[in-house]
Amino acid sequence: MGRYRKKTLIFQEPIYVQSSGTSVGPREGSGPLAGSFDEVFSSLYCGEKNWEAAEKQLLRTAIDHCLTKGQITRGDVDLLIAGDLSNQMMSASMVACDLQIPYAGVYSAGATLVESMVMAALWINGGFADHIVAATSSHYGVAEKQWLYPTEFAMQKPLYAQTIVTGSGAILLGRKRTEVKVTEASLGIVYDFGVNDPFHLGAVLAPAVAETTLWHLEKTKQALTDFDLIVTGDLGAVGTEIYRKILREKGLLLSDTHMDCGVMMYCTKQHPYAGGSGAGCAATVVCGHLLDMLKRGKKKRMLVVTGGVFLNTTFIGQKQSIPTIAHAIVLEREE
């Protein structure tokens, strides 16, 4: 089964990644990771009439690719664990309605995919399911309209702001042995570090991501050198520097062994401000580029720590500080 060490799980019987699927918008599809995505839409509308329907299409497309690559039908899936950034997680809920798969909605903003994967691994580890899909999505137009400012408002953002990723990632977990397995996980604590600027996500997320990183290393009695790669999401350029500074002050040095999903998503000529963010950012990077690295043997073991913020328009208007959380999961190549 597994061992539980207050927030940290060690799976003695690994949970295996059966397949994954990704879909992204045009901006993401013309970035550095373009070759790792299953489907790239040429328009933010994704063939639909509005952005909300477009996000639903993104999520459905990612799940369809995941099931096709896993060579199973939706009838073989015991549970869909998913969430997104839209109000009441409408994209995930509507896709679940279309698929007619038992559904559990979860929300941790940018940390939603990892949270979904941890929940899925627990269900499978406990013997309650054989196949579970974990998925999430975000859409630039939907999120900007809901959380910040509509695109038509044409407000200039600060340079430390980040760009909401238009994309979706889905991953199928099960017991069948494959090239990649889930072996450890840590669920985070909600923190409030006093930052109330919704544009300054890097400053909000970095301390929480650092806390969960340090916690996981301590509870599993491991060092940074036990991993080929430490992956964070979605700190962006500003948050990455803060994260590395926090770890450096704890005596832990990160160099080429650290990659951030928000930094990886875009190139500077795309003018993404400080990088990518949103639930679809880490999801598409993990389900695409990172799993490819493990399958091809370029990396053998990685610790993925993704953060998310909890806020709504009321909180933003009241200038309240923004709570944040970070979850971690360990992905390993099966030798």
Percentage of β-strand residues: 25-35%
Going by helix content, strand content and strand pairing, the class is alpha/beta
Tally of domains: 2
- Tell me the CATH topology of the largest domain: Peroxisomal Thiolase, Chain A, domain 1
**Count of runs of 4 or more consecutive helical residues:** 9
Listing every helix as H and every strand as E from the N terminus to the C terminus, the arrangement reads EEEHEHEHEHEEEEHEHEHEHEHE
Q: What ranges have pLDDT less than 50 throughout 5 or more consecutive residues?
A: none
Helix content: 25-40%
Summarize the structure.
By secondary structure, the chain is of the alpha/beta class. It has helices spanning 51-70, 90-99, 112-125, 140-147, 201-219, 236-249, 261-265, 279-295, 313-317, and strands at residues 2-4, 8-24, 39-40, 79-84, 103-105, 131-138, 163-164, 167-174, 180-186, 191-192, 229-233, 258-260, 276-277, 301-309, 323-333.
Can you walk through the features of this model?
- This protein has 335 residues and is an alpha/beta fold.
- It has helices at 51-70, 90-99, 112-125, 140-147, 201-219, 236-249, 261-265, 279-295, 313-317, and strands spanning 2-4, 8-24, 39-40, 79-84, 103-105, 131-138, 163-164, 167-174, 180-186, 191-192, 229-233, 258-260, 276-277, 301-309, 323-333.
- The chain has two domains: 2-174, 3-Layer(aba) Sandwich (Peroxisomal Thiolase, Chain A, domain 1); 182-333, Peroxisomal Thiolase, Chain A, domain 1 (3-Layer(aba) Sandwich), CATH 3.40.47.
- Strands 1, 2, 3, 4, 5, 6, 8, 9, 10, 11, 12, 14 and 15 form a 13-stranded mixed sheet that branches.
- Strand 1 and strand 2 (8-24) form a beta hairpin.
- The model has no long low-confidence stretch (mean pLDDT 94).
